[in-house]
Amino acid sequence: MKIKNVLISFLGLSLIGALAYRVNMHAGFVFDDYKVIILNPAIRHLTDIVSIWKHDPTRFLPALTFALNYRIAGFEVFSYHLFNLILHVLGGFCVYWLVVLLMKAPALKLEDREDSQIWPFLAALIFIIHPVQTSTVSYIVQRSTIMAGIFYLLAMIGYLKWRLYPGRLSFYSGFAAALASSFCKPSVITLPLALVLLEVFFLKGVEKKRKTGWGIAAFLAAVMIVPGLLALLKEISPSIGTFVSITRQTPFVSRWGYLTTQFNVLVYYIGLLFFPISQNLDYGFPFTKGLLAWPTFFSFAVLWYLLYMAYRCRRGRMFSFVVLWFFVTLLPESSIFPLEDALFEHRLYLPLAGFALALSYAVVFKISWKPARLSASMALTLFLAFLTVSRNTVWSDPEALMKDNIAKSPHHLRPRFNLSSHYIREGNLDKARKVIEEAAAIAPWHPDNYFKIAYIYELQGQSELAMIYYRKAIDLDPEHARGEYYLRLAQFNIGRQRWDKAEPLLEEALKRSPKSDVIHTEMGNINNLQGDSKRAFEHYQEAVELNPYNENALNGLATIYVLRGDYDQGVEIYERLIRLAPGMELAYVNLAKVYFLKKDWEKSKEIFNKALKIGVDDPEILVRLAQININLKNYFEAQDQMATAIRTYRKRGLNEVADQLQQQYFAKGLPPES
């Protein structure tokens, strides 16, 4: 294929992709975007590779790109959407490249046909503008799905080139892509099966001079690298128990129940591929009651028939490949590994590559009359583009998206929780409470409804009422009440200095959420106030281990080091705090005080002045600066600072403090040293 044609195709695909997604390039963050991006301190430090890795090793590379986005534009959402779109177009071009190589395979031998140039372009176009892809591309956090898909396809391309042409470079390139895919999403584990499909359906006529079995085994090792590293670093135990645990996201559905539910889900997915209408973000798809329940057995029969036809259809090589590709790429999320949600549209990202390949093949090679083929291609493109733009219009407005979700899944609670959270962020607390009260009317048995109502009351300053609802959330299901429920009750008591009531609540919270750095920090604070610095130190250390960016825990840890006389360790942590949070006033003040205790007057003065520059309004700083200048023999500067501090104390009604300073420093003139 000529380079000129490839470049024109790439530019065309890029332009069409940009037009299809331009409407929502400034749409705000939604749902899990907040947890993974906005509330994730690790991505704010691009060079802190260790923290980015620890946040989620299985999605390390996507997190690294979020850190890059943050470095470039902070939380300006346009850069995140643009990055997703660029990656998606590259994914489309991977489909293009894969089709070009498949045309050279001896099983097809299509590269010399006059109309063969259309196939790769149409396949890539369908992949890019199919409306189901909006749930991946427009949902920023699903960048992990896009990147996993790209590297998955690149690995297949590298393997296919290695089998078709001599040379090791293609193999190494494919292996590197497989390796990278492992750092994007665990679902790439099926890559070796996809390579087996290539061998069976397209590479039978290729002479096996190379050890294909060893090649596929190498790719299997590549996609297993992250679990291997975690085991090597002793972050997971390489045991059967660990495997059982990590392949079961929820205890509320059995493996058999999840599998039978997936029969219905897979049929629904097929319907979405052919008729992408009435799309939804969060379906709340119901789990089935058994294989014989309606429509589960019917769905099972449909899927069995598809597999049977794929086996029997010997001349329909492309049909058989695509059917098996559909099942293989969905295997991790649609089999016996229970996930909390049975169905999400973004799981169709890779299966859609096979669908695009088959649909474009049918249009290009099964419609022999050229005008009819051109008409079908145009009609298909316009139909998909229209639906994609329409769906992206919904995505462009977070409130509209959530209301659309509620309208399509009226009995699913999470869309209402998400809409309520949106209103809270917008500051519209009355609307937020109304939405949650509607959810409570639908499911009065669900404790999260009352927890959310309590949180809104707390934001509105109605703390006593909030505590009633927090307690109600716990009492509804004490056995499964989350640690966060107890944490809120504890914080209510902490705010009223009821340490004796707060401590047992925090201990209960820790039992339920032992990996919560916030709970450990609050425990450390209480222990510190009670004079138990040893226990406080242990909790602060655990909090920092869980979250190296926990500013309150770091501050508590540094304070204890200083109280122990370990000033150097205290300085190190305070300086780290200032790097992490340049606007944290307390860190500057405390760091300056440590230098003051060390009698490093110049350094202490420098840090206190920085504290004043960032807006710290505390007359104690002026007193400290005056004392420092006395020691540096800058008496006139010290006199001005002390006088200003005294005036400030008097303005604030703290006359006793002002009189004491007046007596100490001005009754007999400023002392020569302090």
How does this model look, in words?
With 674 residues, this protein is an all-alpha fold. It contains 34 helices and no strands. It has helices at residues 3-21, 32-38, 49-55, 60-73, 77-104, 118-129, 134-137, 143-164, 169-182, 191-202, 212-223, 225-232, 240-246, 255-274, 296-312, 317-330, 351-366, 370-395, 398-408, 413-426, 429-442, 447-459, 463-476, 483-495, 499-512, 517-529, 533-546, 551-563, 567-580, 585-597, 601-613, 619-631, 635-651, 655-666. The longest helix is centred in the N-terminal third of the chain and has 28 residues, at 77-104. The protein is elongated and about 105 Å long. The mean pLDDT is 90.
List keywords for this structure.
674 residues, mainly alpha, 34 helices
Brief synopsis:
The protein is an all-alpha fold. 70% of the residues lie in helices and 0% in strands.
The main pleated sheet reads as: none
Low-pLDDT ranges: none
* Mean of pLDDT: 90
End-to-end separation: 83 Å
Please give the count of helices: 34
- Would you count the extended β strands for me? 0
Radius of gyration: 31 Å
The coarse silhouette is elongated
Approximate helicity band: over 70%
Taken as a percent bin, the fraction of beta residues is under 5%
Counting helices, strands and paired strands, the structural category is: mainly alpha
